[in-house]
């Protein structure tokens, strides 16, 4: 059964250490945008706790960031597109060593908390082993199954979309490099290449929308 893992890593070993030190009240929420044909890691980041100009300046001067641009602003939060230095994809690669996918991440008070999806619970051991090997102090905070009720409540995926995303995850479609292709997945699921591509696209969109929506809900509360 697919498993959700929540893990934390110190900002000094991952990203935005200087920004967190400079803006101690700031909160950053990164979204893993899963789209076909891209290897980008957490390109979209919500920032709050300071005005847009202050956040932009801090991010632009942070050693872990290669590039920053503002996408939009909603209430008191700003959405940034970031290009990270090489350390960031290295650490995220360690976190998803067991064929996982980053659903979201949050930085506050000098600590990043990640929400990861794995095809099996035993893949969690790969996180600990990989991070220990490279000196990354990853701490597993919580592990729980992605049950039907929790999946429906958190992402609003249809059963068909859930099955498709889970099979893609288990077969290594999200690995870098990929361990399977759309054509192979389509044959296994007995659907056309186009139908599978569309099903994955809609599933990815709902996963991302659920993560973004949770952030916007928090921002809109008085």
TrEMBL record:
Entry keyword annotation includes Secreted: no
- Using the record for this protein, list the coiled-coil segments as residue ranges, or answer none: none
Bacterioopsin transcriptional activator GAF and HTH associated domain residues: 24-133
UniProt xrefs under InterPro entries: BAT_GAF/HTH-assoc, HTH_bacterioopsin
* Pfam families, per the entry: BAT (PF15915), HTH_10 (PF04967)
Q: Which UniProt keywords apply?
A: Transcription, Transcription regulation
Domain HTH bat-type span(s) in chain numbering: 157-208
- For this entry, the protein name equals GAF and HTH_10 associated domain-containing protein
């Amino acid at each position: 059964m697919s498993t959700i893992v929540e893990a934390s890593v110190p900002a000094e070993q991952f990203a935005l250490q200087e920004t967190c030190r400079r803006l101690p009240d700031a909160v950053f929420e990164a979204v893993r945008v899963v789209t076909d044909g891209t290897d980008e890691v957490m390109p979209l980041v919500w920032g709050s706790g300071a005005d847009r100009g202050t956040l932009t300046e801090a991010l632009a001067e942070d050693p872990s960031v290669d590039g920053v641009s503002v996408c939009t602003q909603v209430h008191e939060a700003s959405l940034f597109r970031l290009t990270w230095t090489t350390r960031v994809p290295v650490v995220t690669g360690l976190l998803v060593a067991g064929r996982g996918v980053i659903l979201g991440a949050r930085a506050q008070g000098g600590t990043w908390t990640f929400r990861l999806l794995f095809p099996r619970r035993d893949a969690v051991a790969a996180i600990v082993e990989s991070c220990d090997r490279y000196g990354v102090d990853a701490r597993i905070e919580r592990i729980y199954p992605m049950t039907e009720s929790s999946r429906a409540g958190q992402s609003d995926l249809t059963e068909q979309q859930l099955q498709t995303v889970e099979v893609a995850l288990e077969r290594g479609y999200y690995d870098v490099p990929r361990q399977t292709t759309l054509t192979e997945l389509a044959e296994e699921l007995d659907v056309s290449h186009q139908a599978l591509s569309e099903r994955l696209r809609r599933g990815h969109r709902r996963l991302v929308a659920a993560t973004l929506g949770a952030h916007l809900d928090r921002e809109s509360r008085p």
